[in-house]
Amino acid sequence: GPPPPVSAHAAARGHSSSFGTTGPARLRLPMAGRAFANARRGRRLRAESMTPAAGAARLGRRRLRSRKARGRGGGETSEKSAGSKKIRFAEAVEATATSDTPAPDQSEARRGERPTDTTSKAFGCSILNVAMSCVPVAGDGDEVCANCGKQGSDTVKLRKCTACRLVKYCGVDCQRAHRKQHKKACKQRVAELKDEQLYSQGHQRPEGDFCPICTLPIPLLMDDYSSFNACCMKRICHGCHMAAKKRGLADCPFCRTPYPKNDAVGLALVKARVLKKDPEAINNLGQQYYHGRLGLHKDMRKAVELFTEAAELGSVEALFNLGNVYYFGEGVQEDKLKGAEFYTRAAMQGHVGSRHNLGQAEARKGNFNRAVKHWMISAKMGEKTSIENMKRVFTTGLATKKQYAEAMNGYQDAIEEMKSDDRDEAMRFG
């Protein structure tokens, strides 16, 4: 048979085979040049964005041709051997093509260059398989338009969906076109964001719940442990009142204004602060109309108007009062949804009563998981009724032992924080 072929590299350098010299190197240069070109071309084709199946098939065809060339002089035995190997290799190629494991990108490992035929990062679809489903991926998904796939750049400004903040659009038209597909995920994410804000905010009581003299939080219910002074619109705890009397101070411990001698003087003090647009004074005047005190006739409509004005000016207590009147229909048409909205706004600013009432509302609807979250927060701020509710839901299996223990520990810490010697003395003397 013919002598075994000499490699192009060996032929170009004039190397010898076992059958003798191959001849001068200059006689082999054209063939060597073609061999080097083919080798480089083969490496480039294998490196540039080739699917695993295509790469395996190409390699298999070359190996089969090489084996056939070596087995031409071997007779029928070599042909059968080559045929059986071809069958086995075809099965291996088919298995590789159906495998979900991608082949490593050798071009990037070898030359550190980006392949020319790569998978699109923006939509996860290759140009070698145009039927592939184009789904935004996590990598650069927030840098392309969710509808048309246009890449964000200096000329293409992408804007996030203002509701869910999950996707971006290159324009209003794309946002409208994608609305039907995005609507469900958008609403779900909006609800999640709303709950995150609801349960993560309002864990600290507002400034009005602290005595301005001793700076300690006032125990709940605050009307039982403090008094509201119309002269300065400050709530002073009974302990500081007791300490001021022991020092001979008969006036307001905070602003030193004499206490009003009758309802008319007290009402005049409140109205003077109302004229200055003090939100707490406006809320207090609304409470006087609500209960019919300080010589005023009970007027629920006027009370609601004053509560609304005070809430717009920033009064957290006014939000709580609006929640009560709408949720229970006192002076207005009952609207539990609107009442819950006012409770929510107040609770997110630290109002303990509003947080507890939100838990009550969720429990009435059977949403005990949400109710427990609200009661845990209010219990940690010292709400006695909330910790009693936590005990009930724990004994009935609607709350875990860990949740009840966490609420109880927080409640005890809050109670300890509210204690003082002056307050204990005031409690003893009534």
UniProtKB/TrEMBL annotation:
* Spans annotated as Disordered: 1-118
What Gene3D superfamilies would the database entry show? Answer: 6.10.140.2220, Tetratricopeptide repeat domain (1.25.40.10)
Enumerate the InterPro entries for this protein. Answer: Sel1-like, Sel1_AlgK, TPR-like_helical_dom_sf, Znf_MYND
Zinc among keywords:
yes
Domain of life according to the entry: Eukaryota
Q: Where is the signal peptide?
A: none
Q: Where is the composition biased (Basic residues)?
A: 59-71
Query: Which spans does this entry mark as compositional bias, Basic and acidic residues?
Result: 107-116
- Its recorded name reads MYND-type domain-containing protein
Low complexity bias (residue ranges): 7-18
Q: Which Gene Ontology terms cover its molecular function?
A: zinc ion binding
What keywords tag this UniProt record? Metal-binding, Zinc, Zinc-finger
Task: Indicate yes or no for the key word Zinc.
Answer: yes
Similarity comment: Belongs to the sel-1 family.
Name all MYND-type domain ranges: 145-186
